[in-house]
Amino acid sequence: MSTTAVTWLMNKLIFDTTKMCYISTFTLNSEWHMLCSFSNRIPNEKDYIEIHRTFPSKINSFSGKLEQKSTSSPNGKIIWQQEFSLHFELGCKSKKIILENNKITEHSPLIGYVTISDDSGKSTLEDNDESDIQLKSLNELANDLTRLLDPKYTSLADVHLRCGSDIIPAHKSILSVRSPVFLDMFSSTNAETQTNEVIITDIDVPVFRILLAYIYTGKIENLTVPLAGDLLFAADKYKLTGLKITCFKYLKINISMENALEILTFGDLHEPDLKVFAMEFICQNCEEFAALETMEMWKILKKEKSSLAIEVLTSLVKTKRK
User: Fold this and answer.
1) Cβ contacts of residue 291 below 8 Å, gap of 6+?
2) Is 67 helix (H, G, I), strand (E, B) or coil?
3) 152, 211, 259, 317: most buried by Cβ count inside 10 Å?
4) Please, which residues have CB within 8 angstroms of residue 234's CB and are 6 or more apart in sequence?
5) Closest CA to 51 of 23, 24, 32
6) Whole-model pTM above 0.85?
7) How many whole angstroms separate alpha carbon 230 and alpha carbon 214?
């Protein structure tokens, strides 16, 4: 199984006279290629991404996530985002991912990741059917548990989480099973146990609600780099290893020179491996120090984390000497 980060520039379009639409291509490797069709130039047609493989002699799974962000928005607002999972049987050369809306634009890149695995060892269709059934069952379970956070089910709650001005009914058993911090909290005779109320003081309400959804369902959606950084802090606090790994992988896939310093600070605070990864990325992609000086994040780093800024400079000098 291999995972490849995707940064797909849309600035080189070709007009397909057969399909009467513009297309853009992206090569993952010598076997796998992706083609994006701008069908939204044709009324009532949806955009799609077509996956092609050169050697259809294997059974493969092709999954991942792609999104497109606005270049005009200062925070990089997500235009659209879609996850996908495709199964390539023997002899199958191509498949389509139909996009759920027509907002794709050639003015900003598609970014995300693709995971390709060789499923040739799964010799029967029943194996794949069983896997689909299990996935559907897990999704149903996650959806059912999400309902426990619905105000309609307040009567089933046995603890209240006070975050900012919000009071969120929750369930000690679920919180305790998922987080050892909550388990210790509810197992001892402290104020939280006696009052059945937990006060959250260092996590913003939107971030805490996303954290809570992950605790109940194991799912995390609509991640951004700043949100992943906030969730890294929250995952550290409540010892949620799975969430920490998810945020770590997301930040690695979505790192760029525009956000590398920000990701470096997340790693410095919460994840040493992420710090090393971001430092190496900066050293490999920063051509000269002058490029750093123009970044607002570099000014903040020098002012608020001068020791980390010195580490960056030292690493850059060592890299250039090599």
Assistant:
1) 257
2) strand
3) 211
4) 203, 207, 208, 211, 240, 243
5) 32
6) no
7) 14
